[in-house]
Amino acid sequence: MSGINWKRVWLGGLAAGLLSNVLGITGAVLLFGEHAEELHRRMGTTMGPVEGALHLTTRFVLGLGVVWLYAAVRPRFSAGPRTASLAGLFLWLFTFGFSMAVTAPLKLHPPQVMALLGVWSLVEMQVVALGGAWVYRE
To answer: For residue 99, what are the CA distances in angstroms to 2, 13, 40, 45, 93?
Structure first.
């Protein structure tokens, strides 16, 4: 059993982060454009350059995290899309899923927006995990 190929983790993480940012922007435009005004009204602010940069950076960190997780569990579950999908599901549960479970009772967003965000982010994390795993090699 060989160790983790850190160079490929970083390359796969960058690819996954880029994919995450593209899908995040696409989702924001396609799915949440109609809800943007309501969300801005509820939040009382819009995303400025600092918040935008932090958001983009966080998505790269998530990409790096899912590729690292894939590399870490790969020896036990074998390489391939099933393992990448499991890594993506696990990371989604402990990031987006947990966050949504904690904030849903606060009713910060309408239920239909929360449901749409949950489904979109789950699909997005699966695509990101598969893309990052495709780049990773030991």
So the answer is: 35, 22, 19, 20, 9
What's the whole-model pTM score? 0.85
For the chain, how many structural domains are there in total?
1
At 27-78, the pLDDT tens digits run 877 776 666 666 666 666 666 788 789 989 999 999 999 999 999 999 999 9
- Of 31, 87, 95, 33, which is closest to residue 59 (Cα–Cα)? 95
The boundaries of the domain holding residue 18 are 6-135
- Which of 48, 32, 3 lies closest to 115, judged by CA? 32
Residue 14 lies in a domain: yes
User: Exposed (0-12), middle (13-18) or buried (19+): which is 33, by Cβ within 10 Å?
Assistant: exposed
